[in-house]
Specification:
The structure holds two protein chains of two kinds. Chain A contains 14 helices and two strands, in the order H-H-H-H-H-H-H-E-E-H-H-H-H-H-H-H. By secondary structure, chain A is mainly α. Chain A has a two-stranded antiparallel sheet with strand order 1-2. Chain B has seven helices and six strands, in the order H-E-H-E-E-H-H-E-E-H-H-E-H. Classes of the chains: A mainly alpha, B alpha/beta. The interface between A and B is medium-sized, with 22 and 24 residues.
Chain lengths: ~475, ~220
């Protein structure tokens, strides 16, 4: 039985349609109150379910936000503690280096000052003592019978000459002593300079300490804000975390580029060692071997950075006692050095293989002379390849620093994305819930629109009944029935 | 303790899977070249040498290559002039390529023309050798005018099993009779094409060897 045969009650499709419409309208009118209740109930169910889901999602979002906040503050606290610790270590190093030498410096300064003092004492000007016989001259000059006495005159003349001689001698002596004093004063100059230099060094050390203490003050302010869990601290940490995430991602992308170059440098020559035709999971064995070598180098680099306490991705290594840690650092370094040397050798091998390939191809092309032609600049590329093969493993070692930053900031970024997604989901659920609620109302109205004719008749009867005097309802009923 | 054990088991599982995934015959190529040495076609062998060198230059470690002559009875290992499966190590593979080239050079210098042309026998030998080589991509190159001339008593009406094979006819020269009636040439090509394709192989003709690099993809 086809749909059309069910539909065609009469031969006329229009009449059949009209009969169907009237029949359906009557059925829908009779079922109106039940249908309205069902539609409303369904809408309510969906609305409530969505509302409850939205509330649950909002709760989850708030919990995640709270968790993010805690993680962010914890990370910030840890980072600030680390910075403060580093600053104190630097101060400790400065104090140990400079203040440990302070007694020696003090002794040095005292010695210098003592020398200057001695020199100063040595350079004090002593006035020349007046000759003792001046008093004798005065006594001779006071002799009453001296005037006009040639004897006295001669004596005085002799005294005058002797006095002149003594004066000249005294002046020479004085000049000599003055020269000696100038020489002593001149000798004091290096001591003054040394003294100035030592005081400058002391000033520099003190300034450095002051700068460090200012940095510690700044870190301490941040630390206090983090401890107080202030919103500004959270905002600051969140912003700096995002910045660090993007910067570290950029640096990691550069490192991936370096790793790719490294890979191409060693993949081909490795086929000489492990063969190039066997496959592991669809990849040539030499490519897999090259990848493994690079990953081992990266791992060794990570461990070395951990052992040097530059990064803290593996707390177990950082927590080792210093002796073991240093031994491990040296072990990692030697493994890395060995791998770098191997890579340099492989890079050299690569160049040889390329040359051999080129020679074979030239030979097969019929260019007999090509295999004997060697470019004089070829050693540059060979050296460059070897250098890159040796340096890249050590360069990749420093990937540990951006990697650590990336891992730490990734937690924040994922948290923020999670919060955003949950918030969007909650909004969507609310929209859907309200949509379901108003859709129920709209469905009811549409239902009534379909059965507008019986509803209109019903309304007319109700109006009539409302207008009729009380007790005349039986008449109305009869009218309707007729 | 249990977690460590689980980690260890997981690691073992990964290692086992990795080792199980090893595949010795993934993308290796096998090329078998038939060189017609009958009658006047021996003059074309210099061209064949060029094709061989081109193929040698393009093959990689792990690939297989054989060159065989087409003579009176070609279904024989004795007709294989040189064959090689290149070593995994590129340096050794290069050495093998040079040795292969030297053998071909020697052959071209000392070759003597044969009285008959048994291309089908050569094809059967090629199929056998390439199947044994376990190459991933199998190619048969026929350097000939495709005019088969069998000695009396030789049965070559045998269907060729060429599923997964690519057959390339190179330098199919026109004979004097072809010039008189070109339909002979066209029919000859069509017959070989039908024979190869009915055997499950693909067919290609490359006559302009100047364009060999751009046309021939192994």
């Amino acid at each position: 039985m086809s749909v059309s045969s069910i539909y065609m009650i009469t031969p006329s499709p229009l009449l059949s349609g009209l009969i169907w419409f009237i029949g359906i309208t009557v059925v829908l009118y009779l079922a109106r109150s039940h249908a309205h209740r069902t539609i409303s109930a369904l809408a309510r169910v969906v609305h409530n379910a969505m509302r409850l889901s939205a509330r649950a999602v909002t709760g989850a979002e708030q919990r995640l936000q709270q968790r993010n906040r805690e993680v962010l503050l914890e990370q910030g606290r840890e980072a600030t503690e680390r910075q403060i610790e580093r600053e104190f270590e630097r101060i400790d190093a400065t104090v140990r280096r400079d203040l440990a030498e302070y007694p020696a410096l003090h002794r040095h300064l005292s010695e210098e000052i003592l020398k200057i003092d001695e020199d100063y004492n040595a350079s004090i000007e002593v006035p020349p003592a007046p000759p003792g016989w001046v008093k004798a001259v005065e006594a001779v000059a006071k002799i009453p019978a001296s005037k006009g006495d040639p004897m006295v005159g001669r004596v005085l003349e002799d005294i005058h000459q002797s006095l002149n001689k003594a004066s000249i001698k005294a002046i020479e002596e004085y000049r000599k002593e003055s020269h000696e004093r100038h020489r002593i004063l001149n000798r004091m100059m290096p001591h003054w300079r040394k003294l100035k230099q030592l005081l400058g060094q002391v000033d520099k050390n003190v300034t450095s300490l002051l700068q460090r203490s200012a940095a510690i003050d700044r870190h301490m302010e941040n630390y206090e804000a983090i401890i107080q869990q202030s919103d500004s601290a959270v905002r600051m940490l969140s912003s700096s975390s995002l910045t660090r995430f993007f910067i570290s991602a950029f640096v990691l992308a550069i490192a991936v580029g370096g790793a790719l170059i490294n890979f191409h440098l060693i993949a081909r020559p490795l086929s000489e060692m492990v063969g190039g035709t066997s496959m592991i999971m669809g990849f040539p064995l030499n490519n897999v071997a090259a990848l493994v070598i690079i990953l081992v180098e990266l791992t060794m680099g990570l461990f070395l950075m951990e052992a040097l306490r530059i990064t803290r991705l593996f707390p177990v290594i950082g927590a080792l006692n210093d002796k073991t840690r240093v031994r491990m650092a040296w072990t990692f370094f030697f493994i890395l050095l060995f791998l770098a040397t191997v890579e340099a050798g492989l890079a050299f091998m690569r160049e040889l293989l390329m040359e051999e390939d080129a020679a074979t191809r030239a030979l097969l092309r019929g260019d007999e002379t090509a295999q004997f032609t060697q470019s004089s600049y070829l050693w540059i590329t060979t050296a460059a390849q070897m250098g890159m093969g040796f340096v890249l493993p050590f360069a990749l070692m420093f990937v540990a620093i951006p990697l650590e930053t990336f891992v730490h900031s990734l937690r924040t970024v994922i948290g923020l994305i999670g919060v955003g997604l949950l918030r969007s989901l909650a909004w969507l659920l609310r929209v859907l819930g309200n949509g379901a609620r108003y859709a129920g109302v709209a469905f009811n109205n549409f239902y009534d629109l379909v059965i507008f004719a019986p509803l209109w008749i019903e309304r007319l009867i109700q109006q009539k009944r409302a207008a009729a005097p009380p007790g005349d309802k039986s008449q109305d009923f009869q009218e309707v029935a007729s | 303790m249990i977690r460590r054990l689980c980690n260890l088991l997981g690691l073992l599982l990964i290692v086992t899977l990795l080792s199980a995934c090893g595949d010795d015959t993934p993308r290796t190529r096998g090329v078998y070249m038939l060189m017609d040495t009958s009658g006047t076609y021996t003059k074309e062998l210099k061209q064949a040498q060029r094709v061989i060198n081109y193929i040698l230059a393009n093959l990689q470690p792990g690939d297989s290559f054989a060159v065989a002559r087409v003579d009176t009875g070609s279904f024989s290992e004795k007709d294989i002039i040189a064959k090689v499966t290149f070593d995994d190590r590129p340096s050794r593979a290069n050495q093998q390529k040079r040795e292969f080239r030297d053998r071909i050079d020697h052959f071209v210098k000392t070759v003597k023309g044969s009285a008959y042309t048994d291309i089908t026998g050569g094809m059967l030998q090629a199929i056998e050798w390439l199947n044994e080589s376990r190459a991933g991509h199998k190619t048969i190159l026929i350097f000939s005018d495709l005019k088969e001339d069998l000695k009396e008593g030789y049965v070559r009406d045998i269907p060729l099993q060429l599923g997964g094979f690519k057959v390339v006819a190179l330098n199919v020269t026109k004979l004097r009779s072809d010039n008189v009636d070109p339909r002979e040439y066209l029919n000859r090509l069509a017959a070989w094409q039908e024979r190869v394709e009915s055997g499950g192989g693909s067919w290609q003709v490359v006559n302009d060897l100047e364009r060999l690099e751009s046309v021939l993809v192994l």
